[in-house]
# Entry
Amino acid sequence: MSEWDSSYLASDQDATDGFGSNDDPAGFADGPAGFGAPHSIVELDVDGGRRLITDSDGDGYADLVALDGDHDGVIETAYHDSDGDGRLDTTMRDYDEDGVADQLLQDVNGDGRTDVVASDVNNDGRADSVSFDTNFDGRMDAWVRDTNYDGLPDTTTMRSNPYATN
# Structure
């Protein structure tokens, strides 16, 4: 899903359309995320919903895929290439469609398995529960939770490794 055919790029690269090479990149290169001017944004209407595919660094790989499944203008799921290697390694989900991500899943080491899950249970914009796969074996083995939603961790749990040596 992270590699896509550049022949579908919708932008005329020589035009001044907001995405072409002759456009002023101001606002992108100096932005807080540090992105250069986007190479292309493709919008597709599929099965009653909308998909936006963005190649922000011009390498021919999707850096962001945003899905608006019910075409209401709110992105329910977004996939992101967080390190620029061409893999969509981060998933953000907005279950209640309030415009704020309720869950983030990330593949840190590139093995295709989720290594970090952060969840915002009470919709205050802060992660209330974070779980980690610390040894990258495909199982979550460390958890930090804010049970009273004050922004501070209340419980920390770690699964012990029966094969660990000292």
